[in-house]
Amino acid sequence: MMTPSGLFFFRLKRNIKEQAKAWSSVLDWTVLLYILVPAILVFGGLYREIWLETPKWAAGVPWFLLLSIVLFLIMAFGVRIRIFVDEADRLFLLQQSRWLKQLKRYGMIYSFLMQALVLVPPFLVALPFLVGVEQAKLKEIGAAYLYSLLFAMLMSMTIHMLAGMFRKWRLIVMEAIVLLIGAAAYVYPILTLKPEASIFGEALAGAAVLLIIVVIVYLRRPIQFETEVKNERSARLSSTELLMSQVIERKPVMKLKKPLFMRRSGRLFKKSDTGTIIAELRIIAFIRSLSTLRIGLGFLSVTTGALIAVPASAGFALIGGFLFLIVPWLRAQWEQWRNEEFVGQFPWNTADMFAGLRISRFWLLLPNMMIWSAVAGFRLLGLWAVLPSMVACVLIWRVAHTREWRRPALKAEASNAGRD
């Protein structure tokens, strides 16, 4: 006789078989063996050498900060709550509330175990650096893992409940607020993980209490069946979509809808050269895309929290590291936008496209530069240094981009003159 637990494990087993079939269709075991064995030997030997002797370059890396950023990104975009419901359950299980509650409980436990597994590899990779460079004890690292696990489950359950309470742009706004608050609430206690610091113990206890409250609320809330079916379908097809994305050309469905921001496409700048117009189009497209805007705001929140946590003397140096991380992402977003059908149909000049890239990058990162420099200046010299720090950083940012804009223009003029 079928029971709620039997139904859950039956569907879990079916899901594992489906994922295994999807991956086995593209990964032959002999080829996989040829890849895994050398990888284990090479990376295993490298990992052993790092344990025996810490590299010199590792001494200048803030490993707790780097690990906390990686872990928070995993929490924000990683494991989600799954209860393994099917479309046909609306005919049978909707009348069986007890069965649905049991599926919710088993799904919560399954998600907790998956979170525990997903968080292990980052800690294993960073373990020799945390012990050798940060001089952290295993007890402190274990406490950081426990706090990360509790916080990851808290984030997953909160976002899962928001998906059943809000729709469309309201859901995106609420998720962004949760990510902004969660970034500060997670990164700062991890950076204060020291034996003499009491804030981490308070944060760990607070996360445990808050998780208990969220679990009670989650179990008492009625199931949002349509949302759960949609999430389950997306999770089951994620591997297949990933594998087939490079084989089958995706034809997006055209949807006409009014944007949330910048509904009137007016001019942003006074200049009318082609590079400036391209930059305007890219900035408007960036702000109108809630997905890119959410990632940008999440990165700004995490980095600002990092500036507050690190020593004041390292603030301005850390800004350069932030640029090193975000500029490649902006370049990838630019390439995706540039290759869109509407933008790609015009015969843009290479120099104009280069100028548009630089101009749009300057203005898109200008708010980040102002906030970073204000926080770094305030922590270093106090309130009176906020405005001078902002002005200095903005001027440096402007001069760097002005020189980059002129170089491609001069090269293009020289090449055109040579052709003539």
Automatic annotation (TrEMBL):
Keywords in UniProt for this one? Membrane, Transmembrane, Transmembrane helix
Q: Name one GO cellular component term.
A: membrane
According to the record, the segments passing through the membrane are 21-43, 63-85, 106-131, 143-164, 171-191, 197-219, 297-330, 370-397
Determine the domain of life of the protein's source: Bacteria
Q: Does 4Fe-4S appear among the keywords?
A: no
Q: What is this protein called?
A: Uncharacterized protein
Species this protein is from: Paenibacillus pinisoli
